[in-house]
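Appendix B. Chain record.
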Amino acid sequence: MRVKQWKRGWVILAIAWLVSRFVVCPCRTFSPQKTSQQHGVGPLRAAPNKADALTLARRQLKLAVDQQEMAVEDLQTARQTGDERKIREAKEDVKEAKEDVKEAEEKVQKAEEKVQKAKEEVQEKVDRDATAFANELASIGQPEGLDAGVQLFKLNRSLTADYRMSGTAMLSRKTIRVAWDAAFEEMEQGHALRVAMVGMPGIGKSRSLTYGLWRLMTREVPPVVVFEARRGQKVFIFTWQNNQWVVRSVAINNWIPANCKYLQDERNFYLIDAFVPEQWDAILPAKTIKACSPDRKHHSGFVKDGGIYVYVEAWSEAEVEAAHPYIDGAPKLSEMLRRFEQVGGNLRVLLSNVMEYDKYVLLQREDAKNLRAVERAVRGDLDTQGGQMLTRLFTYFSKNGRSSCVGFCSKGAAKMVLDAHYDDLMKIWSNPNDPEGDFLFEQFVGTIFTTSLLEGQRLDRYSITRKAGKWDHTKCQPLMPCGCQLLECDSEVVFDQRWRAAVEKGGLEEVLHTPKQYPGIDYLLDFNHGIQVTQSVTQSDKHSIAPKLLEKLHTAFDGHKGYNFTLTFMVVREPTSFKPKDLKEFNGLMKLAQGKERVFSKVWVDVIQMPKTRDSLPKKKCCKGSASRRTAGRAWS
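C-alpha cells predicted for this chain:
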C-alpha cells in the first residue's frame, strides 16, 4: 500500500538526515564554538540535542499529515470505483495515518517541553561560585580604612575572572563613593531613571560596580540586583532568599533584558558593565546604572529622556601609594609613581608591563599633535568616538560626582600638549571674549609651576604700589618656575588645613590648587605666596583682593610673627596696565603689615605676564632654594 511505502520513505529520509548531520557537520557536536560566533544566537544553542529532536519531530509530523491526506484521497478514489476491498484497505490506511499523526503530535509536544525545560534550566541555573561571592561580600560589615580615603574590602573571591586580574581585594576610593552617593540620591528622589557612570578608562569603574552591589545588598530591605558583566559574558541575578543570597547566572548570548521579570519592577536595580557598546540598551522600569567610558556610543542614547551622568575621577598619587600593598602583581611603588607623572591615575596602565606602558606613552605623544582635538578636550569634550583617545591626555575632575570639569591627566601629558601647542593655546587663553578662557588659563598656570615646561625661564615681575594717588608698577626680581608637585584640594576646609600645616612647618613642599570659588587666590606656591589667575586686565571680575582672603590670612598665620606675604596676579596682557579692582581691598591687604596688630612683616602685591610664545624668554638655570622662609625675603624671589 502507498501508506506503508510512504512510511518506509520518511523513515529512510529521517535516518539519512541524521546521518548527514553527523557526517557533514561533526564539528557541531564535538567542537566548541567561539564566543564571537555565539553572540546573538538564541537559547536553543544551549541544548543542541534537544533542539535537533524538536526539529526532527516537527518534520515527522509534517510527513504524517501528508500521508494522512494521501490516505484520504485514496479512500475517495476507492469509493468512486465501488471496490469494497479497496475501500476497506483505504479506511485502514486512513485510520493508521491518523494514529501516526497523533503519535507525531505527541512527540512534538514532548520535544517542545524538553526544549522549554532546557531553556529554563539555562536561565534559572544557580551559580554556586557567584552565590559564594555574594554571601562573602554581604558579610562584610565595614571596610578597612587606608590612607588617602581608600577603603579595603578583603575578599577571597571575585564575580568574574576579569575582576580579579589584580587580586580579589576590592578598593573603594572617595570619588567612587561620592559618585554612587550621587547616583542613589538622584534615583531615590525620582530625578533620574538611568545613570551613566563616566570616567577615563582604566580607573576601576567596572570594579566599582561591586561597591554599588555591596551598598544594595546591605540595605535593610535589599532589592533584586541584576548585574550584567559584558566582558565576563554573563548576567548575574542576585536575590535574597531564606536569609541568604542566591545568585543565578545566564550566558550573555542567551540574555534578553526585556524578558527578565525582575527588570519590570522599579524597585529593583540593573547594573551594567558596558565594556563594549551595544547598538541599543533596553529602557526598563528597574533603576539602571551603567559604568562606561567617555565614548558617546556607550551613553548618548542611554541617558536620553530621564538619564543623568555621574563622574568618577582618576586615581591620585596618594591613593596609588595607599592601595599599592593590596594590588596583586603591581610593579614597585617607585616605578608606579614614576609612571604616574606621565600617564596620571590610569591604574590599568600603571600596572601594565613595560612594552604596554611604552606603547601608551607613544600614543599620548601622537594624540598631543592634534590641536583641534586638544582644544575640544580643554573645553570639556572627552568623547572618544572616532578613535581619538583624548583620555590619554585629559581626565574628568568632579568633587560632588554630579558636575565635572576637564583637565590634564598628568604633568607629563600637560607638558606634551603645551610643548606642541603653547603659542596656539595662548591665543585661546588671551581671548577676553571666551567664557571658558579664565578657567582654561587657570589650569595652564598650574601646569607652568608643576612641570619643567618653563623651568629656568625668568618671568618678569612688577611690584604694584600706590604713589601720589596713582598705581605704580616697578620692575622687580623675576620669578623663576621650578617643577613642583601639584596637590589638588577637594574642599575649602582641606585647603585651609594644608595651608595652616605649611605655616606651622615654615614651608610648602607642593603647589596647592584651591577648590573652585576659593576667595582671592587660585594657587599657593609657598606657605606665604598666593597666586591669582586673571585672564583679562579689564573685563574680568576676578582681579580683586577678596575681603574673605584677609580673614583667611589672619586665621592661617595666627600666632606666627615675622613672616612676609606675597600676592601675585598672573595675566596674559601687558602687566603695567593691570591694576587691582578695588583700592579699599588693596589697602586692607597692606594694613596686615602695619601697626601693632600686624600679621606680617611685609606684604607685596605684584603682577606677572605669561610669555606670549614658547621661546619668547631667555632661559636660566633654576634656583631651587628660592622659596621664602622665616626671613624678610620675598616668596619665590
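Further analysis of this model is presented in Appendix C.
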